[in-house]
Design a protein that fits this description.
Largest sheet: 5 strands, mixed
Number of strands: 10
Helix content: 40-55%
Strand order of the largest sheet: 3-2-1-9-10
Length: 287
């Protein structure tokens, strides 16, 4: 029994396809997808079409991530705070405008967590952020993970969201974060996913980093028009795709500090572009 586990694709068709192709070659019996299928990279429709093809061809489990919730909230509540161009929200609005009614219906159908039961093996829980919230965080090494492992009635919990691949154990139970297939942290930006191997009633994880054509993913950022619509954010995504080094939090926090110092405001979604540009310049991201 082999279960391919993929999380945090973030519209990166090329990273997703590399992970799926590798899993098929390795003979996985089914796939579990842990959310954040869209946003950040170009052409989200290519990623969604590939997911539908996989869904029609293999046994799959899908749950939603926080990015899917963002898209549904925007659609349902008629929010108007996403603008183009904007390093804060331009990428989100670009993604929203490139989704279809089929995509929204698919997102709406998804639970935020799941349980896989296979005869002869401990149950496996799976979620994006946490079992209760897509925006929850099960950070490796944290007391929250220990508490989750203590209380859960399963052998393994699979998650994503943090883009940091790794495991944490407690008294024979284990959390496995499979990393990100689309905007991976570390490992020189190679796409990440996991295979859960069932052997003699025991689950054993294999965490993988898959090389792929990163230049194609970067080209999609530019050719799709996303760069013009999300400015510094697209630059941050490109840097992460090519190096595996995430500087988005650093840049956002500095832009927020500048915004607060000069205008007394701290809302990330309304940061004027001048502060994003200044932050990126200070951090050497524009050279």
């Amino acid at each position: 029994m082999k279960i391919g586990v993929i999380s945090d694709t973030h519209s990166n068709y090329h990273g997703l396809k590399a992970c799926v192709d590798h899993g098929i070659k390795e003979g996985v019996d089914r796939f579990l997808f842990l959310g954040d299928y869209v946003s950040d990279c170009g052409y989200p429709q290519k990623t969604m079409n590939l997911l539908y093809e996989i869904k029609d061809s293999y046994e799959c489990g899908f749950i939603k991530g926080n990015r899917e919730e963002y898209m549904l909230d925007y659609k349902d509540q008629g929010l108007n705070h996403w603008i183009i161009p904007s390093s804060a929200t331009g990428s989100l609005l670009y993604t929203y405008e490139n989704l279809t009614e089929r995509d929204f219906e698919f997102f709406r159908s998804l639970p935020i967590s799941g349980r896989m039961s296979i005869t002869g093996y401990p149950d496996v829980l799976y979620c994006h952020g946490s079992m209760e919230r897509t925006r929850g965080v099960l950070r490796l090494g944290s007391q929250e993970v220990t508490d989750t492992l203590k209380s859960m009635d399963a052998g393994v919990i699979l998650c994503g969201h943090t883009h940091v691949q790794g495991t944490q154990e407690y008294q024979g139970k284990k959390l496995v974060n499979v990393g990100s297939a689309g905007v991976p942290y570390f490992y020189e930006g190679n796409a990440q996913y996991g295979i859960l191997h069932g052997e003699n009633g025991i689950w054993k994880e294999e965490l993988l980093q898959i090389g792929y054509n990163k230049a194609m993913a970067v080209s999609d950022l530019h050719e799709s028009g996303l760069y013009e619509k999300s400015n510094i954010w697209a630059k941050l995504v490109e840097n992460c795709l090519l190096t595996g080094i995430d500087r988005s939090k650093e840049c956002l926090n500095l832009a927020l500090e500048l915004y607060q110092d000069k205008e007394g405001k701290i809302e990330w979604s309304t940061i004027p572009e001048c502060y994003w540009q200044e932050a990126a310049n200070v951090l050497g991201l524009l050279g």
